[in-house]
Amino acid sequence: MKLDYSDKIYGCFLGKSIGGSIGGPLEGRKEFLDISYRLPEKILPNDDLDLQLVWLDILKKKGIKITADDLVNGWINNITYPFDEYGVVIANLKAGLKPPQTGIYNNWFFECMGAPIRSEIWGCIFPGMPEVAGYYAYLDASVDHWNEGVYGEVFLSIIESIAFREDDIEQLIKKGCEYLPEKSKVRRVGEMVLGLYVERKDLRETREKILKHFGHYNFTHCVQNIGFIICGLLYGEGNFLKTIVEATRCGYDTDCTAATAGAVIGIILGKEQIERQIKTEIDDRIVAGWGIKDIDVPADIDELTGDILKLIEKTEKEENLPYIGKPFELPEISEFEKPLKIKFEISDVFEEVDDIEERILSGEYDGFKEYTFDTMFIPLERFFNGNRGRLFLKTQIEFGKEKKVKIYPATTDGIKMWIDKRKVLSYHQHSEFMPAPHRPGSPLYEAEMEKGRYEILLEIMNCNNTPDFAFIIADEKNHLIYLNGNKIVCEKEVMGKGVRCEKFPSP
Q: What is the model's pTM?
């Protein structure tokens, strides 16, 4: 008998929409949130859904058997969000890399929530086919993530696929964990939360255990947030709104956790049960964000559901669909040529030398040694060697044309920067490392640079621990710009000049 999936697909994306709108305004707050069990006043745009609309557009045009190259084209042609891993993958693609190198190279955010939040489309297109849903989630996540970032999307897509046939949430979590290797932190957090819930620990205590064993200061790191999604599903006890709010109360990446918990419970309950529970009309229009372009966006969840049902009809006719094994292990990534090359001259480490800045600016100091790096993350520990003090880095950058830029020497300690001997930045704060120019508090130098060559001098302090450091250049819209031989590499110069990559690895 042919099953009617429309009720559950609609419920999934209704939950996604409502959850994202409840959690969105609270994103980034790390305390336990005391909030009411209340529906949102309006539906907000959310990149959690936006990227899935791009994949939907590709599937409608290309068919079910898409490849990593099809997803790459979506990133290049249809996505403009510069945030965290999104910005990194766009830069990596423009520099000629291909998946899965794009997910790991220069990517401090490779284990964050950008991939796990877009799992629903695979679970819905492959209902009751978790191995296939898991493969497509792997294909998707590997473009801009690796390790736990990939395992996170695989896990969520699997439980969403299973949820079309299984409404026992404890069984869902257990079955989803079985698809991941025992070493996976996503699996371990899932099993831990499930165990604590069975032991009748309350939500606050379970949340604290998640943070103790899997916590990360970056609020978007995926392992802790997937733990909070599972909290919402378990402690929500089958209630649509409570599930979303319990996930939200845990804090951190709340637009993602609330939206994903809402999507899973939405599949389990379906549209009709949700409407009976909330007893009010909900705006079901699709509100797309500014970061996607040049695609057909469904007008509402009804139209989105219809599009997915048509794709399900295609999957039922396909043979030999790709799938993952159980448990699923990520393949090894082979060595590959790095597209970024930057030269720095680096000084000795100075402890207390009052006139060292003047000596270096005047050219009296001649102890610099030259090094070439193939990443924007510079391993300063090899130069500080456990010592406190300061060191200086010199480089040159060249602009082939006038360009508005942001220069961001990201560090965890003090930083000064001179451009052509003019001090443009002085910042001394012991802070958490966050190599993203759009994040609030980033010590940026923003300017419109004329065509030509500029000398950059950096002074980096190390007061307590060896500082993390990245030398980041972005355009005015926060999109990363890579250096090759210290020359700014613009999009038109690198598109189509990719390094040789292996075929996307099979599961």
A: 0.94
